[in-house]
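Incident log, structure service

09:12 report received: a user says their structure output differs between two submissions of the same chain.
09:20 pulled the input from the user's history:
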Amino acid sequence: MSNPITVERRGAVLMIGVNRPEKRNAFNLATIDGLAAAYEQLADDPEVRVAVVFGHGDHFSAGLDLAEVGPAVAEKGPQALAGGRRFDPWGVWGPQVPKPVVLAVSGISFTLTIELALASDIVVAADTVRFRQLEVSRGILPFGGATMRGPARLGWGNAMRFLLTAEEFGAAEALRIGLVQQVVPAGQHVARAEAIAQMIAKQAPLGVQGTLASARIYEAQGAAAAAEHLRAQLPRLMTSEDAAEGMMSFIERREAVFTGR
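09:34 re-ran on a clean worker, output below:
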């Protein structure tokens, strides 16, 4: 049996692939745990600065493999979705990974895919992508973050339309409501996501991670907490080697080379 999650380093970018194409990349327990393990690798490897998550084959994912995951959720609760590692890829039942994630989606991208998109930092979609949040048509409700992040990020009506109707929508609608940030021709979505990730990887790692943390604190705790975080973190960043390199590259009119120190 093939590994349900593939991991490949390309410079400072970690390419994470969902690898159950024969099942339309449905997430069973091994796939969930493998994705969570890949997020741990992203966090722990000092040479890796950003990840791209994509699906092998024509589809990103049909969602949860409910025949296997359903009993685990019934026994352990919705936190079974987190995978039991330090970071929850969906950022609901455990902390989010502290480095950026760029998601590339195509084909069938149902239920859990939408929630992974909402938990990711940038989403690139193939123009043939098909989104659908199916839970209400199965007698349950989403438990990977759609009911929380959807209304907050996409607008109440936009979120409620796909959450309460289980209606399918495509790339154009996803771009309109802000679920995805760019739409490209089918077959180019992974390359475009990697290109964005490589651009992120060239920036100062401490600055990137600090920016991400600040934005997440604002979303979760509000402006006062985000301002306090900035007050505490900015002096350290201003005296870092990367800040000095950024200034020198500006003076010398060259591209900066950041080390994360």
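09:41 both user submissions now match this output. Likely a transient worker issue. Closing.
09:42 reviewer note: The mean pLDDT is 95. Residues 135 and 141 are 5 Å apart (CA to CA).
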